[in-house]
Fold this protein.
Amino acid sequence: MKKLLILPFVMLAAMSVQAQVVNKTLRKSISFVMPRTADDDMPGTRGAAVVWHPLQKKYYAAMAGNIGYPLGVYDEKGNRLSDDSLNTNEDIRGMWYNPIKKQIQGNSYGEYGWFSYTLNPKGIPISSTIFVEGMNQPGDQSVGSYSIAKQEVMFLKDGQVFFYNMKGEELEGALTLQWGRVKSDGVSSDDPATPEAYNYTTVVYTGIKGAELGVLNILDMQIELYNIADGFMTQKLKLPEEAPVNQSFNFAYANGMYWLFSMESRTWSAFK
């Protein structure tokens, strides 16, 4: 009889372990300062994105809000390689690296479309081209993130994640995030509203199986990862007390690290 009880007990224990949320503490890694100061012409205020180009071995960081705002190119250690005059040339909201096209791409405000950069031999953008025209996102201010696994662009809007193919066509099956809920609780919600405790513009794609989607909880000072299959939380990544957190923009994922932008110091900092 005792032997018969062992297997169910082990199975229950295993299920309990699987149901638990993984908790980690992130630590600050590299940082870099965006070009220009608040007193310069067209400096921008909010950070749009940080992107890692694996072939160039460079970071590309953009300010959100105007074609005249700065774009910065940095090496692996965070040293800036571009000059102060380099502009985004697009009204950027989101930005990503497309491994199929081997290009830095992004989406702009509203109906301004999706663009790609042409780089010079040193990896500095010299021009941009619109490759998908018009409104191809759920909202004017939507921040695009790229899913390498499915070759799709995703956007967070009103608590839901919307998916678009690379032609800019919206796909069926928007995902309602289960804010702060884990699957083992047995409680789910169909209410798509983003709680006030979270950054409401940005969802990042990590590529981590079962924890593909990342959002920023500004109240609890943590990044939460969610399963793209069902929208439940699977990981909590605690941030240091000094980490800059904002309710919109200023949040990205690149080269295996989470990036937060300080609007006061105009600095992107990586946490891993």
